[in-house]
Amino acid sequence: MDWIQIASTYVPTNPDQLTAFDSFRMWADKYRAWILFAELIIVYYLGFATRIRMPILKNVLLYILLFVGALIFAILDVQLPVKSAMLVAIAILVIVKVRIKPEQTGRK
């Protein structure tokens, strides 16, 4: 993933004395695709996965396609706030799941 690291947009103001925020931003730029991959998996399972288990080859294909999407999002993340948008999507899906849960238990 060196080509993604080359596209890093964050430059600390004082490279000699890095703050915790500077260190975190540099780490997040280095592992941009993996962070997005984890966020995509969370969004998939919160919003789109059903309770039916898929066969193992379909799961492997799903993870491969999610990683390809994460690579595309990593390229877009150089100029757009994709990681932040994914965190907002995760927060919205968690809120929806929490609100729907009592409704489903009340019906049963």
From TrEMBL:
Pfam families (alphabetical): YlaH
Protein name (Swiss-Prot/TrEMBL): YlaH-like protein
Name the source organism: Brevibacillus brevis (strain 47 / JCM 6285 / NBRC 100599)
Any keyword Transmembrane? yes
Q: Which UniProt keywords apply?
A: Membrane, Transmembrane, Transmembrane helix
**Membrane-crossing residue ranges in chain numbering:** 31-48, 60-76
- InterPro entries given for it? YlaH
